[in-house]
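User: I'm curious whether this sequence folds into something compact or stays loose and floppy. Could you predict its structure so I can see for myself?
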Amino acid sequence: MAITLPYIPCYAEYDVDNNPYQNIYIDLTMRCNMDCNYCYNPKRSKDDMDVDHFEEVCKRLPVPVKMNFLGGEPAMHPRFFDFIRTARKYDHQVFFASNGYRYTNKKFMEKLQALDVTFSPGLSLDGGSSSEEFYEILNNKRCLSKKMKALDNLHKYGIGRVCLSAIITRGVNEVVIGELLELADRYSDVVRYIHFRSAAMVGRWANTQPYTAAELTELMRPYFTAEQLQPKCVAEIFCTPEEGGDCCYRFRPNPRLQISLIEFATEKSAHCPKRGKLLPDSFRIQPFFQNMMDVGDALSVDFGEVVVGAH
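Assistant: Here's the prediction. I'll summarize afterward.
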């Protein structure tokens, strides 16, 4: 079934055969088992990407890229594991974002554990490790126990290269920064990445002033030494100001952990030269952040904004 999101022209658009981006974001499905207040894709349906179409995309990309599976909840696609295998068949790297609900399912985790290819699973923890209130504000659900069970299962089943993530919303949940750092230490056998990104002025959060990458960096200073905060990046896409992509900052406080600070869907990030978004049911790619901003704004007309702090 087709994924029906609005088509909106961006400042650039490319055929996959001429893709210039090192990072490609792909909506596998519009299915989701949550209804987060900040969601930039609030459409909920059983619209799924076709695996054969995806394989053709993988074939036509001129060089291997890092693929980021999104949605909806990408793990809810009925053929989710086939997407991972197909991408790896063509030497593309795989990361998938997840709210973690599927990680609490024994059969799903056994299938994930049985995969004989490399991948990097994500787990969003917008409320950190202690606050049901933050989860209710941001994710529209009191889901702390589910989140902690998901992380426990990633550890239990030995699923490595885990990326913890949190959306940092100004004046709301800055405290979760320290909590995710503590979780990364507690689960150091599996957690390799942490992504902190700003809440975007898009969709339901259109009136929220986001943190810039520089401001997110300042939020890190109480937790690290100046030496630990020095920029360093391994195995992830990294943009420098000279390349026109001064919207993220990455550092490695120790050899096993990499932290990314991402200015999400701002005017500056809209021109990131390394992140593209595959358009639904097509072989065309647009700049990722501009696509997310414009599509999110279009969908917010139907779904409405949420005021920060509203329950």
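Summary: The chain is about 25% helix and 20% strand. Confidence is low (pLDDT under 50) at residues 303-311.
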